């Protein structure tokens, strides 16, 4: 965060002290432009991308590591810097804005959570490397792919495509993804990003290198939490002891650590405190399920599924005693505007992909198998806060 941003976030229109100054800084789904303590990973990625400094394409590669290791943050930050370096500061790399003809590879980031079709995949790439807007309707996938090939045939060095979350349960099937890669022009190389070990995914059959990203070490994660707290909270709102508690519990997972920080801040703020207390941290940790579904995955769902989940996290115990009762309660909400049948179908779909979990009730009704209820596999407070801010 630069000096101007630090000054602006401390400005008060109402003169009142606030604990939370910037929700985005606390969000587990927002990536810092300069990820904390990831220098060695940047170096390994730059080693792989070194050919671009001579105007050439690097070979295909696979970036892998556990959830919350900062893979997405590092790749998006690096791609952003490679795109934005001024032309007079490098011999070959030029900015890849649409207003210029690049003499080095363009860099395009694609999240398979959002681009789940062949059309969306090629559209995302083409839309980032040409000046004019690419239509989203009235054009076929084959036409789109042909135009991508034609566009890159006239470029000097092509495009490097970062394809994230390749093994996400809600994303593109791996076999289909390999077919998408095969459909790319010769002047395109890809950087696949996922959690699976290289031996467990077939994409590595088409890569020259695998780049491992290890989970955060304890002190690194403490630094991440403290940095985000410094950017998003009032001064001295979080002490090192609480940051260490969060980091110890998160065990190298930055997503879970930041989710805990956000929830603890919301707890403290709703209680009228100007600092995060130990009880806030404890409550936050207890709220996060194990394992925890990434909030980025939840917030990339279609809007109607997100609305259903938003209502779900506000339901009381009686309303969630069974799937039927949950369905009825959600369908009654005007913000959802869906039939009971559609709501129930969405809930079952979300259970199939692990966003929510069906848990058998322990209540003995004496009438056959006990009903099942639904439990979110993500922290409700964090989702509620981030969803509401996005509306």
Fraction of helical residues: 40-55%
Tell me, briefly, the overall form. globular
CATH homologous superfamily caption of the largest domain: P-loop containing nucleotide triphosphate hydrolases
- CATH architecture title of the largest domain: 3-Layer(aba) Sandwich
Mean pLDDT: 87
Count the DSSP helices.
16
Rg from C-alpha positions?
Answer: 23 Å
| Total domain modules | 3
Q: Name the strands of the widest sheet in spatial order.
A: 2-3-4-1-5
Q: Helix and strand succession? A: HHHEHEHHEHEEHHHHHHHHEEH
Instruction: Let me know the number of strands.
Output: 7
The top-level CATH class of the largest domain is: Alpha Beta
Structural class per helix/strand content? alpha/beta
Q: Could you list some keywords that capture this structure?
A:
Rossmann fold, Helicase, Ruva Protein, domain 3, Arc Repressor Mutant, subunit A, 3 domains, 5-stranded parallel sheet, 44% helix
What would you say this structure looks like, in words?
The protein has 391 residues and is α/β, with parallel strands linked by helices. The protein has 3 domains: 39-212, P-loop containing nucleotide triphosphate hydrolases (Rossmann fold), CATH 3.40.50.300; 216-287, Orthogonal Bundle (Helicase, Ruva Protein, domain 3); 295-390, Orthogonal Bundle (Arc Repressor Mutant, subunit A). The protein has 16 helices and 7 strands. The protein has helices at 3-9, 23-26, 39-49, 71-84, 118-129, 141-153, 174-182, 218-232, 240-250, 254-270, 278-287, 295-299, 303-312, 323-331, 340-352, 380-390, and strands at residues 61-64, 106-111, 159-164, 188-194, 209-212, 356-360, 372-376. The strands form 2 sheets. A 5-stranded parallel β-sheet has the order 2-3-4-1-5, sandwiched between helices. It starts with a helix and ends with a helix. 41% of the residues are buried.
């Amino acid at each position: 965060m630069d000096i101007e941003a630090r000054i602006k976030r401390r400005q008060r229109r109402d003169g009142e002290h606030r604990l939370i100054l910037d929700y985005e800084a606390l969000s587990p789904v927002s990536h810092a432009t300069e990820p904390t303590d990831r220098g060695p990973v940047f170096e390994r990625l730059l080693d792989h991308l070194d050919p671009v400094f001579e105007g050439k394409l690097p070979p295909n590669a696979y970036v892998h590591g556990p959830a919350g290791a900062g893979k997405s943050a590092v790749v998006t930050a690096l791609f952003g810097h490679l795109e934005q370096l001024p032309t007079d500061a490098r011999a070959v790399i030029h900015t890849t804005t649409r207003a210029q003809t690049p003499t080095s590879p363009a860099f395009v980031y694609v999240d398979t959570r959002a681009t789940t079709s062949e059309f969306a995949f090629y559209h995302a790439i083409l839309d980032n490397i040409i000046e004019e807007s690419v239509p989203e309707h009235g054009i076929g996938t084959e036409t789109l792919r042909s135009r991508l090939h034609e566009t890159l045939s006239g470029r000097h060095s092509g495009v490097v495509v970062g394809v994230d979350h390749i093994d996400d349960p809600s994303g593109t099937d791996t076999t289909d993804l390999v077919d998408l890669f095969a459909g790319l022009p010769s002047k395109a190389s890809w950087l696949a990003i996922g959690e699976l070990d290289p031996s467990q995914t077939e994409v590595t059959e088409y890569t020259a290198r695998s780049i491992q990203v290890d989970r955060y070490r304890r002190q690194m994660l403490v630094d991440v939490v403290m940095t985000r707290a410094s950017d998003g909270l009032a001064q001295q709102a979080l002490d090192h002891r609480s940051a260490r508690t969060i980091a110890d519990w998160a065990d190298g997972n930055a997503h879970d650590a930041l989710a805990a920080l956000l929830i603890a801040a919301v707890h403290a703020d709703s209680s009228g405190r100007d600092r995060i207390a130990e009880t806030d941290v404890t409550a936050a940790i207890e709220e996060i399920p194990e394992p925890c579904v990434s909030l980025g995955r939840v917030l990339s769902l279609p809007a109607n599924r997100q609305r259903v989940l938003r209502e779900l996290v506000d339901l009381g115990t009686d309303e969630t005693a069974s799937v039927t009762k949950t369905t009825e309660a959600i369908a009654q909400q005007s913000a959802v505007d869906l039939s009971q049948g559609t709501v129930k179908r969405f809930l079952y779909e979300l259970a199939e992909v692990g966003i929510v979990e069906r848990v058998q009730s322990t209540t003995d009704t004496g009438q056959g198998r006990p009903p099942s209820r639904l439990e979110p596999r993500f922290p409700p407070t964090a989702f509620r806060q981030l969803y509401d801010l996005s509306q």
